[in-house]
Design brief:
190 residues; mainly alpha; 8 helices; 72% helix; 0% strand
Length: 190
């Protein structure tokens, strides 16, 4: 129960709340999101029937809420790519399983951040006419992004990496049972 509450609270706090607070909050927390950690750890620790649903719901639910509140279109070109990334990360979490050591989860978290970055920024490059055509435009999409959006793509991704590692660590520690206390030897009765 505690892991589920932790996951829900983190999605609401870091994904939806900044949009309710205003543009400054959104810029300050841009990239800090539990989504990839939720997809990764949800698949490893939740029952199979919830594993994929948790990651997809955490991505799609807040997306529609945020876009509705801000008057943005509900459907964005990157959404299918994001869902594919979430499914791939979920499969990685399922392959790791609940008994994998924390460093394995952190390595998978690093991989999931890189996959998210490459996939979503590549879709941005393909779908936005603001990027120059060719390799230079793709590199711009992967590094600085478009000048009218802040923070730069690489800053967003560094924040996302820090958030993914932090949330993955928190989820793994919260989802694992605490070790039983060691038995203390009893003194001999004389």
């Amino acid at each position: 129960m505690i892991p589920a509450l932790l996951l829900l609270a983190s999605v609401l706090l870091f994904r939806v709340a900044p949009w309710l607070s205003g543009a400054e909050s959104v810029r300050a927390l841009a990239g800090w999101s539990p989504l990839m950690a939720l997809a990764l750890c949800g698949s490893a620790f939740f029952p199979r029937r919830w594993a994929l649903a948790a990651g997809i719901t955490a991505v799609v639910g807040p997306h529609f809420v945020i876009n509705s509140l801000q008057g943005y279109p509900l459907w964005e070109p990157y959404l299918p790519a994001l869902m594919v990334v979430v499914l791939a990360v979920s499969q990685l979490g399922a392959a790791l399983g609940r008994k994998a050591p924390l460093p394995a989860f952190l390595g998978a978290s690093l991989l999931s951040t890189a996959l998210f970055h490459l996939a979503t920024n590549t879709v941005s490059f393909w779908s936005s006419p603001d990027y120059p055509a060719g390799l230079a435009g793709w590199i711009q999409a992967q590094t600085t992004g478009l000048p009218q959006y802040s923070p730069a793509t690489w800053v967003f991704s560094l924040r996302q990496l820090a958030g993914d590692l932090l949330f993955t660590t928190a989820f793994v520690l919260a989802c694992r049972p605490l070790p039983a206390p060691a038995a203390t030897p009893r003194p001999a009765l004389a």
